[in-house]
C-alpha cells in the first residue's frame, strides 16, 4: 500500500492511506461532536435547567402563587380567637406583647385595645378547620387545602416583608422564587416564558416592583414576564407598523450572527441569553395571543370563577388565566392582588377584598381538580405578614383597624404533594404569638422547593465567592406535617 506524508507529522514519518482516512474521520467526528455539543449548549441556554435531574421525585410540576399584597388579617380569615371578642376593648396585656416592637403607626398610641372580629366563624371539613364567613367558597374546599396558622417573618413593614417572601431576603437584589425554580428546572414549553406574573388591575395600595419577580444575580433569562390585560399583554412584543413577520425573522437571523461573533470574542454567557430571549419573543408573537384569549372558554367556566371573570385584569380573570398558563406548561405563575392593608375601616375593606378573591381562588382549585391537574400543581394563598390583635386608631363595636404583625399569620397551600384537610400550627388565645409549630419564611421556601423535587441546600449559584441559595445560610426545615 502506498504511503503518504501527513502535514504536521514528524519529519520522515509516513502514514498509510488507512491511517490517514482514520485520522481524517476522527477529525470529522470531532467536528460533528463539537457541533452537537454547541447545539446542546444552545438548548440549555434557551429552555433547560441547571439541574440534570431533581434531587428526589417531585410531587408538583408547577406553582401558582396567589399573593395577597398588604397583609390579610388572619383574625378575620383563618385564625379564630373568641377570647378577643370576650375582651373587646381591654388593653393588650404586657405579658402577651412581651416587649415586641410595634410600627410607628401604632407604637405611639396611648392605648392598645384588643379588637374582636365582627365576622362569624364555623368549622369545616374533616379537620374541623375554623374559617370565616367571609370565605364561603374556600370553606367548601377545606378538605383540599392545608391551612398554616403559624407563619412568621422578621419584617414589620411592607417592602422588606414582601421582598422577603418573594426572594428569601429583606434586601432587594436577590433572585425571586420563580427565578430560582426556572433556573433549576427550566421550562416545559419553549413558546412561553417559564415564569409569568399577573397583577390585578386598578388596585391602589402598597406598590409592587418588578424586582419582586426579578433574577438578581441569576441569568436574566429567568426573569418573570408580566402579562397585562388589554390588547398588548406583553409590552413591545408585537411588530411595529410596517414590519411584517418575514422582516422580523430576517432581522433576528442577522442579529443572531452578530451575537455569535460577540460570543466567540468574549465568551459572555449573557450573549446566549439575549439570543434565546429574542427567539422566545418571536415565538410568543403567536403563543401569547392564543393563551391570553379567554373568550373561547365555555360559559360554565366563567360562572365557576364568578361575575368578574369576563373583566380583563380582575383577580377572577387572572385566576382563569393562570389555569390556562398552567395547562401550557408554565412553571411558575405569580398573581398579585393588592388592597389588604387595612389600618382603618377593616370590616368593610376586608369584606370587599374577600368578595373579589374568595370565589376565584376556590374556583381555580376546583377547575384544576376537575381537569386532573391539581395533584401536580402547587397552589399557595397568602400575604407578607398578619395583623395585630389590637385596634389601630379608634375602636368601636363595628369598626376598627389593625396594624402590621409579623409574629404570626395564616396562609394556605393545596395541590401537588399537600395533604388536604390539614390545619398546621397554633397561636396563643390572643392571636399574638405562636405556641406550636412555627413556620419561618425559610421553612416555607424549603417546602416549595421540596415539593418540586429540589433539596433547598443543593440548588445553589456561585455569587461573590459563595454558594448562594433561596433559603440562605440559616437553618430551614421542610414542613413534613402538611405533606401528603
Any overview of this molecule?
- The structure is a single chain.
- The longest helix is centred in the first third of the chain and has 30 residues, at 17-46.
- The strands form six sheets. Strands 3, 6, 7, 8, 9, 10, 13, 14 and 17 form a nine-stranded mixed sheet that branches. Strands 1-2 form a two-stranded antiparallel sheet. Strands 4-5 form a two-stranded antiparallel ribbon.
- A hairpin with a 6-residue loop joins strand 15 (426-427) and strand 16.
- It has two domains: 3-43; 61-238 and 290-482, Alkaline Phosphatase, subunit A (3-Layer(aba) Sandwich), CATH 3.40.720.
- With 484 residues, the protein is an alpha/beta fold.
- 44% of the residues are buried.
- It is built from twelve helices and 19 strands.
- The protein has helices at residues 17-46, 82-86, 94-97, 136-140, 158-167, 177-185, 245-266, 269-292, 299-305, 315-327, 346-370, 441-451; strands at residues 3-5, 14-16, 62-68, 121-124, 129-132, 145-152, 195-199, 225-227, 332-337, 377-382, 386-387, 404-405, 409-415, 422-424, 426-427, 434-436, 439-440, 461-463, 466-468.
- Helix 7 (245-266) runs antiparallel to helix 8 and helix 10 packs parallel to helix 11.
Amino acid at each position: 500500500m502506498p504511503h503518504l506524508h501527513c502535514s504536521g507529522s514528524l519529519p520522515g514519518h509516513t502514514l498509510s492511506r488507512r491511517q490517514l482516512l482514520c485520522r481524517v474521520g476522527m477529525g470529522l467526528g470531532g467536528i460533528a461532536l463539537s457541533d452537537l455539543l454547541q447545539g446542546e449548549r444552545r438548548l440549555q441556554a434557551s429552555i433547560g435547567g441547571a439541574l440534570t435531574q431533581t434531587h428526589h421525585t417531585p410531587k408538583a410540576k408547577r406553582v401558582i402563587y396567589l399573593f395577597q399584597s398588604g397583609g390579610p388579617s388572619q383574625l378575620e380569615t383563618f385564625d379564630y380567637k373568641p377570647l378577643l371578642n370576650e375582651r373587646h376593648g381591654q388593653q393588650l396585656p404586657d405579658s402577651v406583647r412581651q416587649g415586641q416592637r410595634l410600627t410607628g403607626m401604632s407604637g405611639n398610641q396611648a392605648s392598645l385595645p384588643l379588637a374582636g372580629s365582627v365576622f362569624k366563624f364555623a368549622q369545616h371539613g374533616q379537620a374541623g378547620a375554623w374559617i370565616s364567613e367571609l370565605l364561603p367558597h374556600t370553606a367548601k374546599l377545606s378538605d383540599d387545602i392545608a391551612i398554616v396558622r403559624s407563619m412568621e417573618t422578621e419584617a414589620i413593614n411592607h417592602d422588606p416583608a414582601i421582598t422577603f417572601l418573594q426572594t428569601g431576603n429583606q434586601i432587594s437584589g436577590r433572585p425571586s422564587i420563580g427565578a430560582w425554580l426556572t433556573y433549576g428546572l427550566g421550562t416545559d414549553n419553549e413558546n412561553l416564558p417559564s415564569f409569568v406574573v399577573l397583577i390585578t388591575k386598578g388596585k391602589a395600595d402598597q406598590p409592587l416592583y418588578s424586582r419582586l419577580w426579578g433574577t438578581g444575580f441569576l441569568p436574566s433569562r429567568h426573569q418573570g414576564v408580566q402579562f397585562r390585560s388589554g390588547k398588548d399583554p406583553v409590552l413591545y412584543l408585537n411588530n411595529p407598523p410596517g414590519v411584517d413577520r418575514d422582516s422580523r425573522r430576517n432581522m433576528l437571523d442577522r442579529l443572531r450572527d452578530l451575537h455569535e461573533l460577540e460570543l466567540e470574542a468574549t465568551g459572555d454567557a449573557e450573549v446566549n441569553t439575549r439570543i434565546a430571549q429574542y427567539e422566545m419573543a418571536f415565538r410568543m408573537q403567536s403563543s401569547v395571543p392564543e393563551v391570553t384569549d379567554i373568550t373561547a372558554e365555555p360559559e360554565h367556566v366563567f360562572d365557576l370563577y364568578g361575575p368578574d371573570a369576563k373583566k380583563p385584569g380582575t383577580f377572577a380573570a387572572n385566576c382563569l388565566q393562570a389555569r390556562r398558563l398552567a395547562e401550557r406548561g408554565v412553571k411558575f405563575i405569580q398573581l398579585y392582588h393588592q388592597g389588604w392593608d387595612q389600618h382603618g375601616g377593616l370590616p368593610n375593606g376586608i369584606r370587599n377584598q374577600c368578595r373579589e378573591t374568595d370565589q376565584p381562588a376556590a374556583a381555580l382549585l376546583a377547575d384544576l381538580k376537575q381537569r386532573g391537574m391539581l395533584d401536580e400543581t402547587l397552589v399557595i394563598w397568602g400575604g407578607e405578614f398578619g395583623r395585630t390583635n389590637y385596634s389601630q386608631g379608634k375602636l368601636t363595636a363595628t369598626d376598627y383597624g389593625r396594624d402590621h404583625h409579623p409574629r404570626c399569620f395564616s396562609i394556605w397551600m393545596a395541590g401537588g404533594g399537600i395533604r388536604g384537610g390539614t390545619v398546621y400550627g397554633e397561636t396563643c388565645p390572643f392571636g399574638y404569638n405562636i405556641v406550636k409549630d412555627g413556620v419561618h419564611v425559610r421553612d416555607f421556601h424549603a417546602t416549595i422547593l421540596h415539593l418540586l423535587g429540589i433539596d433547598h441546600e443543593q440548588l445553589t449559584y456561585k455569587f461573590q465567592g459563595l454558594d448562594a441559595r433561596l433559603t440562605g445560610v440559616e437553618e430551614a426545615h421542610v414542613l413534613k406535617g402538611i405533606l401528603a
